[in-house]
TrEMBL record:
It comes from the Bacteria. The keyword Membrane applies. Pfam families: LptE (PF04390). This is LPS-assembly lipoprotein LptE. It comes from Frischella perrara. Component of the lipopolysaccharide transport and assembly complex. Interacts with LptD. GO terms for molecular function: lipopolysaccharide binding. One of its GO terms (cellular component) is cell outer membrane.
Length: 169
């Protein structure tokens, strides 16, 4: 029995330590099962990714909510910055850190406004010998960053739900 317990404990520690997460682990709170979504650019990568994740989590997105009866997730802006981390001997940048910053807010049925800021960091190696592959790799990294930012935005709905529950009690 002790061996089984030790094996299960060791497996859990190893899976937790390596960053393993189950797919679709984000559980959307009940009050966010129906909501509106707004973005300045509804067709950019971030907006499409957020909408896709909300749909995968069975959130009903309402187009019009003139009565303000549903929570609203609004993407204010997003920006990808690039900082040099290391340089070659000739002074050109060898490695960049890409930083995606997303500013959003959740409006709770016309009552409270909760600002949300997420940042996603990735490292990108700049090899001047492979210019075409470099562009493709950077686009792939940016797509992954948008997916990670969308997951962070959706997971922050849980913390807003907790705050709302404290206000209501």
């Amino acid at each position: 029995m002790k061996k089984l317990f030790s094996l299960v404990t060791l497996t859990m520690i190893l899976l937790t330590g390596c960053g393993f997460h189950l797919q679709h682990e984000t559980e959307i709170p009940k009050q966010f099962e129906t909501m509106t979504f707004y973005s300045e650019n509804p067709y950019n990568e971030l907006s499409r990714t957020v909408k896709d994740l909300l749909n995968k989590n069975k959130v009903l997105l309402v187009q019009e909510d003139s009565a303000h009866q549903y929570p609203s997730l609004r993407i204010i802006n997003s920006n990808i910055g690039k900082e040099t981390i290391s340089i070659y001997q000739n002074g050109k940048s060898a490695e960049y850190q890409l930083i995606l910053t997303v500013n959003a807010q959740v409006i709770m049925a016309g009552r409270d406004i909760y600002p949300i800021t997420t940042k996603v960091f990735r490292t990108f190696f700049d090899n001047p010998a492979t210019a075409l592959a470099k562009t493709t790799e950077q686009k792939l990294i940016e797509r992954e960053m948008y997916t990670q930012a969308a997951k962070q935005l959706i997971s922050k709905l849980k913390s807003i739900n907790t705050i709302e529950n404290k206000h209501n009690t």
